[in-house]
Amino acid sequence: MVARHLAVGRAGEDTATSFLLSKGYTILERNYRCRQGEIDLIAERDECIVFVEVKTRVHAGLEAAIQAVDQKKRRRLISAAALFLSERALWDHACRFDIIVVQPYQGHDLCKHFENAFEGDMTTGSSDMYSPF
Questions:
Q1: Whether the predicted model's global pTM rises above the 0.90 cut
Q2: Which domains does the chain have, with CATH numbers?
Q3: DSSP string over 65-106
């Protein structure tokens, strides 16, 4: 049996995947794992590689979900993204980091998509977060 939080997270990633596909994105990879960490979704649209962190929240608000992508998490995402780009020789592509928050609402899931949620320096792993609030 799968732990509830893992099942909720998987369902949120499924919802986010469908959301991105409906917006014209191509999904390159789900749950990309490497020694630096994990990237929930890697997508592409208009020759831009998009690294997506999905936060599924049943009770917590939108702000709490965004704040969960803290400095440490951003550093891991940036390092994993750099490895992904290196493995596939995609350094010539534009890229960005997005966050999608999935929340249940009246029997269905809502997606809030934060494009360019933070910037990252692929060489140093440092990042700057943009606050949508």
A1: no
A2: 4-124 (3.40.1350.10)
A3: HHHTS-HHHHHHHHHHHHHHHHHTT-TTSEEEEEEEEEEEET
